[in-house]
Every structure is written in structure tokens, then in C-alpha cells.
Design the sequence.
């Protein structure tokens, strides 16, 4: 059996086209453009690439990209002051502080300083809490995109067994919440899980978010399962000496067993940025409803973006 390839690149492009049409519709009615502020502290090369890519795609769909590039020695107080300015800025709908931050800055403190209503990464404890109670919240972009990929091959997930490998705050835990809200039975596996192949083999939906190249091989996969490979690992090809990106799944082996599979690159990665743009536009549209022209008026405590769905009893 050869798995259906889930083309994240194409699905993300289709989503961006939808978002661009929504933005164009608002601008045609005379409203301001939605704005996404991205803050980069220091010059970590991987972060530079992510930030450049986010800015490019933000502009491509007609939104404003507001970039703040700060030196590595920026103090925590200066960064908090910038976040406070962005919170109050009526032209900013989403704030993303690129992680990791330099060691002298407390990342949790910065995330908690972002107004929940502009926390388009969905990392603020208020959004995390709301997601877990089935309330209205910004959903972290990678799990949100992963769920869309799963639903591109199967709409009704009710009653399926989903196994999420990885329990990080940005991928594994929110993925658990989203799958639970879809009425899956969810198992979260991690570095201390015993007999991981056996646990994974019982999954109708297997989400790998570990960061270990080829950890998930064909022995881990139930025939016909949907496999979402979140992992991004850089490996060097022994034969050519060239480096390339691979996922957590052994693509060639798994594709013979799975029913559907995401490639790396070209799977979850493109969906992450598309969902960041979607979160920002969702926030903007709430603000439009509140303030007509999308002005400053928003209440970070009472106004929420509904994307999490409700957890059924
Ligand atoms: P993390 O390091 O925070 O978490 C990794 C998790 O894997 C941990 O919960 C750990 O318990 C688990 N783990 C480690 N070794 C294991 C093992 N041998 N067996 C089972 N579980 C094990 O990582 P993260 O931030 O969640 O990211 C995971 C992967 O996803 C990384 O490769 C990262 O680059 C990638 N990622 C991709 C995107 C994207 O847009 N595609 C976004 C975020 C993260």
C-alpha cells in the first residue's frame, strides 16, 4: 500500500489565497489592513529565516508586516516596553515574539505580557487555559495547521484513536486538546513512554512531534493510519555531504503502511505560517466588529477568537 501524500504546501497556498480574499474584501470597504508585528531579538540564523518568511507571506496576502529587529543585548525591560506599545497600538492585530530569546530574557514573562487578544501564537496562559476548557482562544499555529491537514483526508474524527508523540507546550499539548475536541480518544506519548512502537501502532491518527530523525518507522504505524510528521530535523547525507531536512518519520518505510502521510519539507511547515496569518486575520475581524474601522478598542479579557471548538461530554 502507498499512502496518500498530504500536500501541505498546496493546502497552505489555498488557505493563504482565502485569507488574501478576506483581506482584500475589508480593504475594498475602506478598512485598514490587518497588521502582524514580529519581534526578533538577536540574530539566531534559523529565527532570521523564519521571520523573513513570515514577513514575506504576511505582505503577500495584503496584510501589514511590522518588524522589530532588536540587538541581542536588548534588556528584558526594553522588550516589555515594546510589547506594551504593541498591545496598545490600534494598527497591530497580532504580536509574535520569535523564540528562543537570549538567555537573559525570561521568555515566559514576555509571553505573559502580550495581550491575550493579540497573542496569535496562542502561547499566553489565558489562551492555553481557554483551549483546554473548550473556550474561545487563539490556537497555536502548528497544531491548528496539523488538524487542518488531518481533516483534508478525513472530516469526521469522532471515536478514532489519536496518538501524539511529544508533549511540548507548543505542539504536543495543544494537539491533544484539538483532537479531544474532535472527539478522538487521545494518547500522548513522550520520552518516558514504554513500548512506543506498540502505542503508536494502535493509532488511527499518529502525530509525531519529537525532533528525532526517522524515529517513527514502519513498525510504529497501523495499516491505513493518518500520519502527521511535525518534526523538522537537519541531517547530513553521508554520500553527498549535503545537509537536508527530514521529519520524525522514516518517509519511505511509513508510506508503504500508512493511509495518508505528510512529507517533510512541504507538510506541516507551510501550514504553521498560514495559520499564523489566519489567527491574525481572525483577531482583526473581531476588532472590526467591535470598533467599526478596526480601531484601538478591544478588551483582551472579554473578546476572544473562537477556533478551538467545544469539548463534548
Ligand atoms: P520539544 O523538544 O519541546 O519536545 C519534544 C518532545 O518529544 C518532548 O515532549 C519529549 O518528551 C518527546 N521525546 C523526545 N524523545 C523521545 C523519544 N525517544 N520517544 C518519544 N518521545 C520523545 O520539541 P517541539 O518544540 O515540540 O518540536 C518537536 C519537533 O517539531 C521538532 O523537530 C521541531 O523542529 C518541530 N516543529 C516543527 C514545526 C513546524 O512548523 N513544522 C513547529 C514546531 C516544532
Sequence:
Amino acid at each position: 500500500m502507498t499512502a496518500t501524500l498530504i500536500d501541505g504546501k498546496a493546502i497552505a497556498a489555498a488557505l493563504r489565497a482565502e485569507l488574501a480574499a478576506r483581506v482584500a474584501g475589508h480593504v475594498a470597504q475602506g478598512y485598514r489592513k490587518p497588521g502582524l508585528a514580529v519581534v526578533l531579538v538577536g540574530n539566531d540564523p534559523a529565527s532570521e529565516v523564519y521571520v523573513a518568511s513570515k514577513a514575506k507571506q504576511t505582505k503577500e496576502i495584503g496584510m501589514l508586516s511590522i518588524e522589530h529587529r532588536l540587538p541581542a543585548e536588548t534588556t528584558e525591560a526594553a522588550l516589555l516596553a515594546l510589547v506594551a506599545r504593541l498591545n496598545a497600538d490600534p494598527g497591530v492585530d497580532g504580536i509574535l515574539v520569535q523564540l528562543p530569546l537570549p538567555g537573559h530574557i525570561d521568555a515566559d514573562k514576555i509571553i505573559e505580557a502580550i495581550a491575550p487578544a493579540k497573542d496569535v501564537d496562542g502561547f499566553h496562559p489565558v489562551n492555553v487555559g481557554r483551549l483546554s476548557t473548550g473556550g474561545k482562544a487563539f490556537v497555536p499555529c502548528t497544531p491548528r495547521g496539523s488538524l487542518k491537514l488531518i481533516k483534508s483526508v478525513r472530516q469526521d474524527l469522532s471515536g478514532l484513536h489519536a496518538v501524539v508523540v511529544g508533549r511540548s507546550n507548543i505542539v504536543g499539548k495543544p494537539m491533544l486538546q484539538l483532537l479531544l475536541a474532535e472527539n478522538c480518544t487521545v494518547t500522548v506519548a513522550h520520552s518516558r513512554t514504554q513500548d512506543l512502537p506498540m502505542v503508536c501502532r494502535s493509532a488511527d491518527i499518529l502525530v509525531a512531534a519529537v525532533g528525532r530523525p526517522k524515529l517513527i518507522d514502519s513498525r510504529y504505524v497501523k495499516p491505513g493510519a493518518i500520519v502527521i510528521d511535525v518534526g523538522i530535523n537537519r541531517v547530513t547525507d553521508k554520500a553527498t555531504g549535503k545537509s537536508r531536512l527530514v521529519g520524525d518519520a522514516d518517509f519511505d518505510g511509513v508510506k508503504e503502511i500508512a493511509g495518508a502521510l505528510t512529507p517533510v519539507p512541504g507538510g506541516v511547515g507551510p501550514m504553521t505560517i498560514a495559520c499564523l496569518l489566519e489567527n491574525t486575520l481572525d483577531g482583526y475581524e473581531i476588532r472590526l466588529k467591535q470598533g467599526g474601522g478596526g480601531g484601538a478598542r478591544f478588551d483582551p479579557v472579554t473578546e476572544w477568537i473562537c477556533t478551538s471548538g467545544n469539548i463534548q461530554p
Remarks:
- Residues 142, 165-168, 170-172, 189-191, 193, 196, 209-212, 230-233, 268-269, 272 surround nicotinamide-adenine-dinucleotide (CB under 6 Å).
- Residues 268-291 form the longest helix (24 residues).
